[in-house]
Amino acid sequence: MKQNILDLTFIELNNAIFDLDIETYRARQIFHSVHSGKSDSFDNLKNIPADLKKILSKNFSFEKLKLLKDNFSPEFNTTKFLFETSTGQKIESVLISEKDRNTVCISTQVGCNVGCEFCATGKMGFIKNLKPGEIVDQIYQISKFTDLKPTNIVYMGMGEPFLNYENMLTSLKILTDERGLNIGSRRITVSTVGFRNKIKKFADDLSDEENFKIKNVKLALSLHSTDNGIREEIIPTSKKNRLPDLYEELIYFYRTTGTKITYEYIFFEGINDSDNDIKRLKKLSSMVPSNINIIPFHPIEFQLNKPLDIYNSHTKDISKFLSKDKLNDFITRLRNQKVVVNLRTSSGVDINAACGQLAVLNN
Ligand code: SF4
Question: How far apart are CA 70 and CA 142, in angstroms?
Fold first, then answer.
């Protein structure tokens, strides 16, 4: 089976070009043309002679995602995209445009087997890991379709990036390569629910001299509770990846990379907003330099056609999960304790494109 040329880092492409007895200076031109994102076949690669295109098409495939649907929310200036992979699975990605910032939220897996309570993707189960080319092509396709240059990339779409670790890492190398899209690593955030040994490994990989182009990639931990028991109800994998172990790895991450941590925290009134939660968040925020993003809960039960278990076990009243007053009060209580907190907006909630709502359940 031919390898998809979009999956290769520059070094891998360079080696392959060498093995094919092609002058190695061509590797740079080919990589640039493939990852400019504008071409969708060997035939329309720019600055590549016809005989070389023939050799490339004989030895590699050129598999792009197919854009099936785009759904724009004027209220939030947010667009959700539905793509199909060359193997027929569907994934979603989101573009959020604000002032001079175009943030693309990308997927790393089709479905996900972590099963977080608040997340529609988790209800799909795991279907497959995306290849590096399928990860980066989401950005190329969105950029081409909208004619907007992506300024920030967040690995927060469908799937758990650390469960598709190698492909995620390869995609980072491709996106930050100056011969391709050349996105600054400070503008990329990878979000994870946290797995033992993986945060440490990520820190080691980012600080490896060979990977200097990705060294400033940011890490976000989906925290959602500072109480491991409650966290287990929200994120089932927390049973095996307990908070004290994750904290140890976050300290290692900061000491190794020098990059501050972001904590993602979905507000669930009556579940993760007690005075003890405030105390523990204050302690956590002084553990290493960090900031906490408070995220409003985005309902998904109408996508699933059933209520979430967490409603049943804690409260039958969904309005509690959606109370803006309580959420603002929680933020004020945290700020009174000098905790650095940002309120994340609900961009795209009206088109099911907000945090937790991505899933190919009813498209
Ligand atoms: S939040 Fe992330 S890790 Fe959890 S189920 Fe959804 S995609 Fe998977």
Answer: 10
